[in-house]
Amino acid sequence: MRSEPADATDPALETVRPGQPTPGRLGRVGPGADEGLADPTGAGRRQRHELWMRRALEIAVTGPSSSGPTSAGGPVTGDPADDVPVGAVLYGPDGAELATGRNERELTGDPTAHAEVLALRRAAERLGRWRLAGCTLVVSLEPCTMCAGAIVLARVSTVVFGAWEPKTGAAGSLWDVLRDRRLNHRPEVYGGVLGTEAAAVLRAFFR
Ligand SMILES: [Zn+2]
């Protein structure tokens, strides 16, 4: 299956995989790849995505500064230092930071406490609605199946992720939940943004 992309006839749905950078598009995957014609180089967007990714990496390393150490005041059962450093930030349509999340699986003993899920929950709580259309989720690691599913359910418009995750990734590595044509919502996806820095944060943890 991997050697034969389902959308091989549609150049706009070309999948960018690790080790296969697309010159000038910085790992752009997903529908509407011709978007941004007024900005052919995508330089402004790339700068914005990299700026946002630096924020996500900061969250990955230090944890959310304002949202508190635990998920919705849940019980603390572990040490945050045991958690794989993954950070996520949700930005509103105007580019304002709505919420952040850091992986808290060990800290809270919650198997669903991934950075993306926490950021989505907090943003929805803040906005008072589950529908996050127009928002951009920035996360330091390629989302897993659970998080990709939650992102689709929340109608997030754009996903920007850092390091590729060949073992569990659901945004192009193992699965491509985010742009599965059988689903009624498909966000735009930018993968590998500051991928080297993002991978270094993880390598430092597992060392
Ligand atoms: Zn996840």
Automatic annotation (TrEMBL):
GO terms for biological process: tRNA wobble adenosine to inosine editing. Keywords: Hydrolase, Metal-binding, tRNA processing, Zinc. It catalyses: adenosine(34) in tRNA + H2O + H(+) = inosine(34) in tRNA + NH4(+). PROSITE patterns: CYT_DCMP_DEAMINASES_1, CYT_DCMP_DEAMINASES_2. Zn(2+) binds at residues 114, 144, 147. The keyword Magnesium does not apply. CDD domains: nucleoside_deaminase. Residues 60-78 have a biased composition (Low complexity). The active site is at residue 116. Gene3D superfamilies: Cytidine Deaminase, domain 2. Residues 47-174 form the CMP/dCMP-type deaminase domain. Binds 1 zinc ion per subunit. Belongs to the cytidine and deoxycytidylate deaminase family. ADAT2 subfamily. HAMAP family: tRNA_aden_deaminase. Homodimer. This is tRNA-specific adenosine deaminase.
